Amino acid sequence: MATRPVNSAYNVAPPDSLAVRLAGRQRREMYRRFVAAAAVVPGDAILDVGVTSDRSYDSSNYLEAWHPHKADIVAAGIDDAAFLETLYPGVRFVAASGLALPFADRTFDVVHCSAVIEHVGSFERQCVLIAECCRVARRAVFMTTPNRWFPIEFHTVLPLVHWLPKPAFRALMRASGRAFFADEANLNLMTANELITAAAPVSGFTTEVSTVSLMGWPSNLLLAMRRRA
Description:
By secondary structure, this protein is of the alpha/beta class.
């Protein structure tokens, strides 16, 4: 499939900003929670859905950077992230959309998907992403996404405006010159209830949504799904 370059519109905050440093710290905790929730052990076949070609942030593609067993990882995404194979020897890159993964059922022990579901478009497409990740997972799926109810929106770095009804938020983004984020295909934030509802149609899995907090406020949602025996 054709790949696209990273869209710089997602990277509003400068790489050395406080917001990016805090995001990196949050991702360290999310990686730790992924290993624990999915009971990851050496030799587990891991699919990382939604890798990016972005190299401006140290915590971009954090799984490939921090997981010690690189050869266990297949990295899939619509960005051209083939450089990951050179940067992290052992990692294999596959150009693929999370909405139509080119793998057979239960190919991987664990599927990881971080900060992707808010960028695939409508709620129906978000449901498809979860279902596809579960389809190719033998044991567990782990997803992260920003919490819509955190006071700062991570992509625009604006306070509170994303709490407006979604049509009003998108109208405000268009009016303020942020048309990229007005498009549902580029940004569709989720609440914990929406994440649970999106996962509900997938049968054969237990589902748990937890959070990572920043300054005492849940900043990120973590969806952990385990296949029932």
